Structure formats: structure tokens, C-alpha cells
Amino acid sequence: MLKKAISPVIASLLLSACSLNPISELTPTPTSTISPSLDQEATPFKEPENSTQAYTMEEVVTHDSADSCWLVIQGQVYDVTSFVSNHPGGEAILEGCGQDATVLFNTRPMGSGTPHSDGARITLETYLIGTLE
């Protein structure tokens, strides 16, 4: 008898729950938005200041050690000092410090003898400091 009395109550609750619009009635309405005011200007993208810096080969050759390692690759100057200890090829990177390392980078004569991977080239770009005069 108790089961028969509870069933209509449960059915009634289920029907009224199904009539709710779960998206509009259960989703909170935001009270504020995150957007700049109309009088604020967006900060424009800024190129790295040193990406257009020009260096002479005389300056590059002074950075020829693990303590300060600059490489020239295809006319671009890279400061890879902070990468030397993480270089997957170990100390092979030191062979290029302070000089034009284009051939070394493209042929890896102390390693596999193949060009560096696309991933290595992308990583290299993060160390770009300028161009060779």
C-alpha cells in the first residue's frame, strides 16, 4: 500500500523535473564580464628588440666557450650559452661557438652526419639575438 502511495509522488516529481529547462534555469548568469574598457588600448605585439641587432664576426668570435657561446648559422646570430648544458649532442655544440657554424649545424659531422631536425631548428630560433653584418 505504501509503495502505491509513493509512486504517484515520485512520478509527479519526475515530471516536474523534466519540465525544467536545464540550460537556462540551472546555469548561473554571469554578473560581470572580463573585457577591457573602451578607452583602453590593446598592447600591440612587440618584436624582440635584439632580433634586428647586427653583429660583426669580430664580436661573435669573442663568444667561443661554454661560458658564452654564440653561433652564426645562415647569417643569423644565436646566443646558445644557456642551451650548451642541455644539448642532446653533448659537447659537440662547443665546436661551433664563436664562429659560423652553418656547415656544422647542417651536417653534424661529429654526430649522425645528417642535418638537425625541424624541432632543433625551432629550438634554435628561440636563441636568435640578431644578424651578422
Automatic annotation (TrEMBL):
SMART domains: Cyt-b5. Residues 52-133 form the Cytochrome b5 heme-binding domain. Keywords: Heme, Iron, Metal-binding, Signal. Residues 28-38 have a biased composition (Low complexity). GO terms for molecular function: heme binding; metal ion binding. Residues 1-19 form the signal peptide. Residues 28-51 are annotated as: Disordered. This is Cytochrome b5. It comes from Candidatus Chazhemtobacterium aquaticus.
